[in-house]
Write a structure and sequence with these properties.
The structure holds 2 protein chains of 2 kinds. Chain A is mainly α. Chain A is built from 12 helices and 1 strand. In chain B, about 25% of the residues lie in helices and about 30% in strands. In chain B, the strands form 3 sheets. In chain B, strands 1, 2, 3, 9, 10, 12 and 13 form a 7-stranded antiparallel sheet that branches. Chain B has a 4-stranded antiparallel sheet with strand order 4-7-8-11, with no helix packed on it. In chain B, strands 5-6 form a two-stranded antiparallel ribbon. Classes of the chains: A mainly alpha, B alpha+beta.
């Protein structure tokens, strides 16, 4: 992979390619981060019956809220980077390498792992989100964790991207069509009468269009600000949130060394035979199938060609809220409740793997048919799993049934929109 | 002639909020939560406080009742005033992460309305799709759902203020925070302390961010208005004494109401509206 330290900006053409490469790397990273943060959330215990006290659960509730907020903002960052790519005429990047990744893969000095919520995971998250040179309140925060940063943060990557945009700015840099840019109202169209929302974040997500240098730099600044915070330190940056979680968790562990906030998920869910109990594996595979279907929808959404506004709305109404919140999140949470092996305490966990063929489906009509087929297959499979009361406890069956119902609806609405536009 | 039954009151609504999944049991990424020691969230609209739920401190009196019952000829029906209004069989706002409907455009499913007082009990079950009452909600066509669904989320501070006396949501939240901090200082039960800690943490976010949904949600209403079609109503009791005639159990029913003033700290919301029931023709001539 490219290194943030290596080549200086070269000739214009080479510099542009370098910018495209670095943006693609940023998209990969943001995508990978959100998977790691979601995985940490999926692993967290949710009830006193899992061996945690009410007091601990209240702290965990607040950690979970923070973790999911950060994950949503990583999705926003991925969308913003796709806007940056599109603005210079490149394709959005929604692929990423499978986990685990070595510390050298991105020249960050930090491995990318699917790891349960705990001090080791939080230490990596702090490293990912750290300012290049922590100062002020951030230095104090970091000091309270007792950690030292011996890594290169993602901030360095964005620093170079920022410089490249400034150096390469010229009329033929921003060749992407402005109409292909996505903003918050286009991905989360909350219909509230009497309230204007276009220029405000919704669910902590704020997507803006990139059409020139000013807007490109504003987007980069937003990503950096949300991640590492302001130079003086920000209480709501991802870095600050993870430092707080780390400090609070360590205090809890000092008070109660037996405290285990995470379920005993498998060490590497991507490994062969990580999950050998067939019903558990089936739910994990359903998660991966839904992840794949969502990526296909997102590819077509971000890199649409001849879709009408109504068709874009249909893609949005399938990909974002229904699939992410009504399918992927319940399935991810379910995975970590299921046994990984016939014997032993370890539970399964989602691997965030997708089919090798995932990518932009280039021909609209065919693409929509492929996407519909995927949604319908998921609806059938989830229905079969929900009906398997021999293999799953009632609470799992009930949640699978809701996922099934959601998928039936998503598929039928998608098909109805396809019929209208065909 | 018709009977117009006006009703209002605070309801219990313990639901997870976006972007939590609709079946989230405790609340994480939204702004409504089940705190320490409390039962799981269940999404159900309780027009009457459920036995399992101990209202949180600061809660208003709960329960929807009839505040007026008047015939369209101007005759009042005092026997119905104070009657209990309920939606039976665990109704929920069916949105399911925008899968069934967009926020503010969700139907209440099932819609099994009951009005009861010592003199009279009226019950009417309204299927979401009157032509296919067995169809599950996720298979009902969007256009059919829209008939019974709310007509959007609307910013109506005056409606809320007039109905509840709450005109300044930020002040209400600020006052609540002070009340809970005082309560927390006196509380000795560790689980109740933890629950109060959670509520206080959320209210602190609200006070620090006046545009947050924890504050703004109070100003919104969702309006419902639809004809009540489907199987005939069950009407038990002395109609003649209670309302001065015989109600038509089948035709011409309609209902219009709003839900609003959602208080995510108390997990309750206000409901106000009116039910219209025609009298049968023979009774019409008798009473008119």
């Amino acid at each position: 992979m490219s290194s943030p330290q290596s080549p200086a900006i070269g000739p214009a053409a080479g510099g542009r390619q370098r910018l495209a490469d670095m943006l693609a790397e940023a998209a990969e990273l943001e995508h990978g981060l959100l998977c790691q943060y979601l995985y940490a959330w999926f692993s967290m215990k949710r009830a006193p019956e899992e061996g945690v006290s009410w007091q601990q659960l209240e702290l965990m509730r607040q950690w979970g809220a923070s973790l999911l907020l950060v994950a949503r903002q990583e999705m926003e960052h991925l969308g913003l980077v796709c806007n940056l790519l599109t603005s210079i005429g490149e394709a959005p990047t929604l692929r990423r390498p499978d986990f685990p990744l070595s510390p050298r893969y991105y020249d960050l000095g930090i491995p990318c792992l699917l790891e349960p919520f705990g001090l080791p995971a939080l230490e990596r998250f702090i490293g990912f989100e750290a300012p290049q040179t922590p100062g002020g309140a951030d230095l104090t925060r970091l000091g309270r964790t007792g950690l030292t940063l011996a890594t290169t943060s993602i901030a360095a990557l964005y620093d170079e991207i920022r410089s490249l945009f400034q150096t390469l700015d010229r009329p033929d840099l921003f060749v992407g069509p402005p109409g292909a840019q996505f903003t918050t109202p286009t991905i989360i169209p909350v219909p509230i009468r009497g309230v204007q929302t276009p220029n405000h974040p919704i669910y902590d997500v704020f997507l803006t269009a990139v059409t020139n240098l000013t807007s490109a730099l504003a987007v980069i600044d937003q990503i950096v600000l949300e991640g590492e915070g302001t130079p003086g330190g920000s209480q709501t940056s991802h870095f600050a949130r993870f430092c707080t979680m780390y400090e609070q968790l360590r205090q809890q562990l000092d008070a109660d060394p037996g405290f285990q906030p995470a379920r005993p998920v498998v060490a590497d869910p991507c490994a062969t035979e990580a999950v050998s109990v067939a019903p558990s594996l089936a739910v994990c595979e359903l998660f991966d199938g839904a992840y794949t279907a969502t990526l296909l929808l997102l590819y077509r959404f971000f890199a649409h060609t001849d879709e009408s506004q109504a068709e874009l709305l249909a893609l949005q109404q399938a990909a974002f809220f229904p699939m992410m919140t009504g399918v992927l999140r319940p399935l991810g949470e379910l995975c970590t409740l299921l046994p990984a092996q016939p014997v032993g305490p370890q539970t399964a966990a989602p691997a965030f793997t997708y089919q090798r063929s995932v990518g932009l489906l280039p021909h609209k009509l065919a693409a929509w048919r492929v996407m519909l087929d995927g949604l319908q297959s998921l609806a059938v499979t989830s229905g079969q799993l929900a009906a398997d009361t021999q293999s799953y406890p009632p609470a799992v069956c009930a949640r699978l049934a809701l996922v099934h119902e959601n998928l039936v609806r998503i598929a039928s609405d998608f098909e109805a929109n396809m019929a209208v536009t065909a | 002639m018709k009977l117009v039954v006006g009703f209002e009151g605070w309801i219990v609504l313990r639901l997870a909020t976006d972007p939590d999944p609709s079946d989230e049991l405790r609340g994480v990424s939204g702004y409504s939560f089940a705190f320490a020691g409390e039962p799981d969230l269940d999404r159900v609209l309780y027009l009457q406080p459920p036995a399992y739920w101990t209202p949180r401190s600061g809660s208003p009196p709960l329960g929807v009742t009839v505040h007026s019952a008047v015939r369209t000829d101007g005759e009042a029906c005092p026997a119905l005033v104070g009657a209990v209004v309920d939606l039976l069989d665990s109704p929920v706002l069916e949105n399911r992460q925008w899968t069934i409907a967009l926020p503010g455009y969700e139907p209440i499913v099932p819609f099994h309305l009951q009005v009861s007082c010592p003199a009279l009990t009226i019950r009417r079950d309204i299927p979401l799709d009157p032509k296919n009452s067995d169809l599950p909600v996720w298979e009902v066509a969007p256009a059919v759902i829209a008939v019974q669904a709310a007509d959007g989320m609307q910013y109506e501070p005056q409606t809320i203020g007039n109905a509840t006396g709450i005109w300044d949501s930020l002040q209400a939240v600020t006052d609540r925070l002070a009340m809970l901090q005082s309560e927390r200082a006196k509380e000795t039960d560790p689980i109740k302390q933890t629950a109060l800690d959670g509520r206080i943490a959320e209210l602190e976010i609200a006070v620090a961010t006046p545009t947050d949904r924890r504050v703004m949600a109070r100003y919104f209403v969702e309006r419902f208005a639809f004809p009540m079609l489907g199987p005939a109503a069950t009407i038990a009791g002395d109609e003649q004494t209670a309302v001065g005639g015989q109600l038509d159990p089948t035709n011409g029913w309609s209902i219009a109401f709003w839900l609003g003033a959602w208080d995510p700290d108390l997990l309750c919301s206000y409901m106000q509206g009116a039910l219209e029931i025609p009298f049968v023709q023979s009774t019409h001539s008798e009473v008119s």
